[in-house]
């Protein structure tokens, strides 16, 4: 890993500019998704359930999010009231109930993701040169490296 710093580059200024721009970009992408806004807790649950095949118990979701089961139960209740999740008996444990995304929520999530990706690809195609598009492709790889443990 490189540990040298370009002496002509103010990394704090670059970091600040990227932080602001990435926040603005994230808001724009969320808007383009066309879905209702979720709280951060609700977003985490929806994201987890979209990646878990067969659903999860409240206890499992709470453990994955490092929150109390009571807090997770409240979040899941809000999502259930909105028709995003439903519950069914756990086939392996008759006392437990599994939380899962409804079919309509899964369809809405797929549409929202396609809308977000479509807007982003269209904006890059319409506003950036091929060289700039390649620069963003490289930037995506660099951001992945920054986020790696």
Automatic annotation (TrEMBL):
Pfam families: MarR_2. PROSITE patterns: HTH_MARR_2. One of its GO terms (molecular function) is DNA-binding transcription factor activity. It comes from the Bacteria. Residues 15-148 form the HTH marR-type domain. PANTHER family: CONSERVED PROTEIN, HTH-TYPE TRANSCRIPTIONAL REGULATOR RV0880. This is HTH marR-type domain-containing protein.
């Amino acid at each position: 890993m490189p540990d040298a710093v370009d002496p002509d580059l103010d990394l704090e200024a670059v970091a600040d500019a990227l932080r602001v721009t990435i926040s603005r970009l994230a808001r724009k992408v969320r808007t383009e998704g066309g879905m209702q806004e979720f709280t951060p807790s609700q977003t985490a649950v929806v994201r987890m359930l979209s990646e878990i095949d067969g659903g999860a118990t409240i206890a499992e979701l709470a453990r994955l999010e490092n929150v109390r089961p009571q807090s997770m139960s409240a979040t899941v209740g809000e999502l259930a009231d909105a028709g995003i999740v439903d519950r069914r008996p756990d086939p392996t444990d008759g006392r437990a109930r599994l939380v899962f995304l409804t079919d309509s929520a899964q369809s809405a999530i797929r549409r929202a993701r396609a809308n977000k990706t479509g807007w982003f690809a269209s904006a890059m195609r319409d506003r950036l040169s091929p060289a700039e598009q390649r620069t963003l492709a490289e930037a995506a790889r660099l951001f992945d490296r920054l986020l790696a443990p």
